[in-house]
Specification:
This protein has a domain of 39 residues. It is 48% helix and 0% strand.
Amino acid sequence: MPDGSRKQKEHKDSQLILRINGKDRDDFVALCKALDTSAAREIRAFIRGFVAAHTAQEPQVSEVEGIIRDSPDPQPQKRKSKRGKKRK
């Protein structure tokens, strides 16, 4: 009988569809096969690592609010046109 203490696997319920060059895809799949892994496993691992790395670097909301509040000029300056003066 299962005791319920085992961690349940999360079901994969989404897809990420992207377009890449066919040669890049074939090279990636061949390399994954040579390394005895799957392309999907490597992409999932990359996504988890990428999210973890960038989540740790994101400033907290309170920090962002403090930066905005302490800013000397919260309104951005209007930029001058690159075209120059209008011709008549």
